[in-house]
Amino acid sequence: MTISDWGPDYVLTAAHVIAGDDLRLLSPGYVQVSDGVVIDVGEGTPPPDRVLGRPVVDLPGQLIMPGLINCHTHIGDAVVKELGYGLGPEVNLLWQPDGLRHVRMGAMTRRERIAGIRTALRRALATGTVALADFREGGVEGVAELREAGQGLPIRCLAFARHTSFPLHSEAALLDNSEGLSERQLSEVDAGLDVAEGFSPLWANDTTDRGLGQIAGAVRARGKLLATHAGETPAYRETSIARTGQGDVERVIEFLAPDFVVHMTSATDEELGRAAAAGLPLVMCARTQAALGYGIPPFVRAAERGAILGLGTDNAMISSPDLLAELEFMSRSLRSVMGDSAAISARRLLSAVTVDAARILKLDHELGSIGPGKAASLLVIDMESDNLVGSVDPIASIVDRAGASDIRAVLVDGKLAYGTLLTQAD
Q1: CA-CA distance, 289 to 403, in Å (whole number)?
Q2: Mean pLDDT, to the nearest integer, of 325-338?
Q3: Predicted confidence band at 426 (pLDDT cuts at 50, 70, 90)?
Q4: How many helices (H) and strands (E) would you count in the chain?
Q5: First vs last Cα of the chain: how many Å apart?
Q6: What is the pLDDT of residues 192-223, one digit of tens each?
Q7: Closest alpha carbon to 258 in 232, 227, 212
Q8: pTM of the entire structure?
Q9: What is d(CA 188, CA 248) in angstroms, rounded to the nearest whole number?
Q10: What are the backbone dihedrals phi and psi of residue 311, each rounded to the nearest 5 degrees, phi first?
Q11: What span, in angstroms and rounded, lies between the C-alpha atoms of 395 and 344?
Q12: Which residues, in sequence order, are CB contacts of 103 under 8 Å at separation 6+?
């Protein structure tokens, strides 16, 4: 019997379970599912009333954990993989309007771009991701391409719309730092919010302090999410100070006050402290930042200052949308740069793609952990695979070793979204 034969109510038993917002390990544990929602989770064997009349699926040697949440992608760039490999800083790879990736993608057909996004979304799902936040170039049309690419795939895509044309101001206006956004530019924000879950100005240096405040006001008036990049390189800070007298991180906190900020790779301890004190969650993307030569994000220093932290895979041109790969790279890199094998706990890193990620994206009412009332969006890991067998610390093995080949199944809302999951009788 396969999962499709179980019906809407079933109990998964005899497996390791990573349960609750504290990500505690139950060995063994059980998870009861009804109509796509977790009804009960506990240690040992389920009480008789929990299994009465329901299929019981024993999963010895498996681990059940929350589905993963990717807090930052540029998934549209999957159509130009490795475009920037080996290019030095003298090449404009990333920046609109004439960055190399934008020129190349602009020359492609809509169908080609959508096909690239869809392949990346399939890869994300196959590596355990059940939800992601994508920064979309191209305004309303860019969001439409994401929606079309994701049709029929059981992965939640939160779109953050962007302006359609750049630059937003002249250099003289940016230096004067008083001009606001035009009516056309404000209309672009509003139109993006009609079709997207949020909006993302590219970075603080795209606009003035007044412009940042206008964007924030427009987004908050619609009750949507707001995010941006900040602190990625020293140039972010230097450019902002030259124009306004304040660093970009300061301006983001003061004038934009987003729901989260991405990168902070070059952030100072003072900037990290300010962000934490302001309750501003930070999303870090280690593989892409390393590949660009920007360094390893200061996850440990931010954690020490009390920041809420999530992880993202960032640009699909550079890094696959694979959060297990992101976890392993971040785990090993942090311990290396800190010179301390105990610099960060595996549980804290796992939280950055589950519990804390859900909080950052305001999905914690249904995703991020396994508990009563949460969606049964689960990842089943084979702890008896050649890669994981013999693990004495399953959570550390997930963070530091597990890969796509160890995934037995991905469930979304209680239904099989990827892989196979058979009962022992099969």
Answers
A1: 21
A2: 97
A3: very low
A4: 16, 17
A5: 6
A6: 999 999 999 999 999 999 999 999 999 999 99
A7: 227
A8: 0.96
A9: 23
A10: -120, 150
A11: 13
A12: none
> How far from chain centre, in Å, is Cα 396?
20
pLDDT digits (tens, 9 = 90+) for 279-308: 999 999 999 999 999 999 999 999 999 999
- By C-alpha distance, which of 262, 254, 312 is closest to 278? 254
Average of per-residue pLDDT across 257-264: 98
Q: Which residue matches tokens 């020129």?
A: 103
Q: For residues 185 and 203, give the distance between their C-alpha atoms in angstroms, rounded to a whole number.
A: 16
CB-based contacts of 160: which residues, under 8 Å, 6+ apart? 133, 134, 135, 136, 196, 197, 198, 199, 200, 225, 227
State the DSSP code for 79. Answer: G
Euclidean distance between CA atoms 36 and 16, whole angstroms: 20
SS3 266: coil
Distance CA 414, CA 233 (A): 42
Angle at CA 60, nearest 5°, toward 55 and 64? 80
**pLDDT band, very low/low/confident/very high, at 422 (cuts 50, 70, 90):** low
Least confident piece of the model among 40-44, 180-184, 248-252, 421-425: 421-425
Residue pair 161/195 in contact by the 8 Å Cβ criterion: yes
Which of 201, 80, 83 lies closest to 139 in space, CA to CA? 201
Q: Which tokens is 392 given?
A: 């004495």
Tell me whether the omega of the peptide bond preceding residue 97 falls within 30 degrees of 0, making it cis.
Answer: yes
Give the Cα separation of 76 and 58 in Å (integer). Answer: 40
Domains of the chain: 3-67+368-419 (2.30.40.10), 68-360 (3.20.20.140)
> In this model, does residue 423 exceed pLDDT 60?
no
Give per-residue burial for 17-42: e unless 16+ CB within 10 Å, then b. Answer: bbbbbebebbebbbbbbbeebbebbe
Structure tokens at 121: 């979304």
What does the DSSP 8-state code read for residue 82?
T
Cα–Cα distances (Å) from 202 to 187, 227, 233, 422, in that order, read 17, 9, 14, 45
Percentage of the chain lying above the pLDDT 70 cut: 98
Closest CA to 249 of 312, 204, 211, 302: 204
Place of tokens 């009412």: 365
3-state secondary structure 31-43: EEEECCEEEEEEE
| Core vs surface per residue 52-81: b (16+ CB within 10 A) or e | eebebbbbebbbbbbbbbbbbbbbbbbbbb
